[in-house]
Amino acid sequence: MPLARSELPIDTASLARYLIGKVLVREFPEGVASGRIVETEAYVVGDAAGHAYRGLTPRNPSLFLERGHAYIYFIYGRSCMLNVSSEAPGIGAGVLIRALEPLEGIPIMRLNRRIERLRDLARGPGRLAAALRVDRSLDGLDLCRKGPLWLGRSDHEPGEIGQSTRIGISQDANRLLRFYLRKSPFVSGPGSLNE
DNA sequence: AGTGCGATTGACT
DNA sequence: GTCAATCGCACTA
Questions:
Q1: Cβ < 7 Å from nucleic strand C
Q2: Domains, chain A
Q3: How far apart are CA A120 and CA A21, in angstroms?
Q4: What is the pairing mode between strands A149-152 and A94-102?
Q5: SS3 assignment, position A109
Q6: What is the pLDDT of residues A89-106, one digit of tens each?
Q7: With bands split at pLDDT 50, 70 and 90, how would you rate the model's confidence at A155?
Q8: Long-range contacts of A73-79 (CB under 8 A, 24+ apart)
Q9: Euclidean distance between CA atoms A70 and A194, whole angstroms
Q10: Distance A157 CA to B10 C1' (A)
Q11: What is the pTM of this model?
């Protein structure tokens, strides 16, 4: 079952925390691949590190959609990044999905990534997008409806959630807007920083 | 039209 | 641990 939009917190940081433990599902013609979200980062309203900081541009309109839509961008000439839009329609903010614990379709993900090691399949924002073949063609998609990419419920409560500074940014670098599942080996960065 | 750089990754010492 | 690759975008002129 997809997450209902009404259950998603409107506030960006709250949404980032809420998404920990939820399931990201990718449907391919050849099957389904999915993973548990173990790491997120919030890019909040008025955040100098956020892509909406300078307003609407040709690349970022999806960030301004109602919460629960995909904002996907290409960076460093290599990687795509998947975000979940947050806040009310017209407000530019979102949550970066940074790492997954692979659940279903692991052979499909191994083919997409061309590596064997389970721990590294979707550990990192670019890696998880590659594992699930997420690219700009899925930008703007509603993640609260079944389709090629959607957010699903978890069958149990997540574990203890840690909080830290965000990774790889220079602006607004001190804010504790990164959330991660404490015990998970599938988290990309430091597992217990600033807690 | 030109420039600088980024919400990273993979290869290498 | 260090470091270069790589290219679309936002900004300047």
A1: A 51, 54, 57-60, 73-74, 76-78
A2: 5-193 (3.10.300.10)
A3: 18
A4: unpaired
A5: helix
A6: 999 999 999 999 999 999
A7: confident
A8: A73/A136, A73/A139, A74/A135, A74/A136, A75/A126, A76/A126, A78/A126, A79/A125, A79/A126, A79/A127, A79/A129, A79/A130
A9: 29
A10: 34
A11: 0.96
